[in-house]
Design brief:
This protein is mainly β. It folds into two domains: about 50 residues, no CATH class; about 80 residues, no CATH class. It has one helix and 16 strands. It has a three-stranded antiparallel β-sheet with strand order 7-10-11, with no helix packed on it. A three-stranded antiparallel β-sheet has the order 14-15-16, with no helix packed on it. Strands 1-2 form a two-stranded antiparallel ribbon. The radius of gyration is 27 Å and the shape is elongated. The N and C termini lie far apart (about 75 Å). The structure holds zinc ion (6 copies). One zinc ion (ZN) binds next to loops.
């Protein structure tokens, strides 16, 4: 607080002190849902487009996002699916399984949202390079079992029969 405000009190312009920029939660200057003086938002008089409020970013209840893969072209919202990955190095991937070491992980990056993964195990989707988990079926019963890869990014799924008889 500026010394002069301490002595004479604040010089309020609506919600904000003109001298020291201190704010109070009253007399905001609302432009729709947002105060033009302090940036505070309220949950009324939003300025909706098809997905969200263009002023404060609040998502519409039945938002019609314009998905470009993982990201909405209109409001920038991201979702968990639709990434478009690119491999940044040539770590071998055999049947979806990553053959990498800790010092040299496989690196994939989404060309749309920039999300990056550094992977040493266990699998990536052979189709879109999204990191995948592996499910084992019949493991522990005999020497043969099945490995399932299911991609949550593009719906690709595959399974391999493995026979570990030594
Ligand atoms: Zn002040
Ligand atoms: Zn304000
Ligand atoms: Zn708003
Ligand atoms: Zn959107
Ligand atoms: Zn993405
Ligand atoms: Zn995939």
């Amino acid at each position: 607080m500026a010394m002069i405000c301490k002595v004479f009190g604040h010089k309020w312009n609506g919600c904000t002190c003109k001298r020291c920029s201190k704010r109070r939660d009253e007399q905001h200057d609302w432009n729709g849902c947002k105060c033009i003086l302090c940036g505070k938002t309220r949950d009324e008089q939003h300025d909706w487009n098809e997905c969200a409020c263009t002023r404060c970013g609040k998502e519409k209840e039945q938002a019609q996002h314009d998905w470009n893969g993982c990201t909405c072209a209109r409001c920038g919202k991201r979702r968990y699916t639709g990434h478009k990955y690119r491999r940044l190095n040539n770590i071998p991937v055999i049947n979806g399984y990553i053959s990498a070491s800790k010092s040299q992980p496989l690196i994939v990056v989404c060309t749309i949202c920039g999300r990056e993964y550094r992977l040493t195990s266990p699998a990536i989707c052979p189709k879109c390079y999204h990191p995948c988990t592996v499910d084992y079926e019949g493991f522990g019963q005999d020497t043969s079992y099945k490995k399932h890869i299911k991609c949550t990014n593009c719906d690709y799924s595959t399974s391999y029969s493995v026979n570990d008889s030594y």
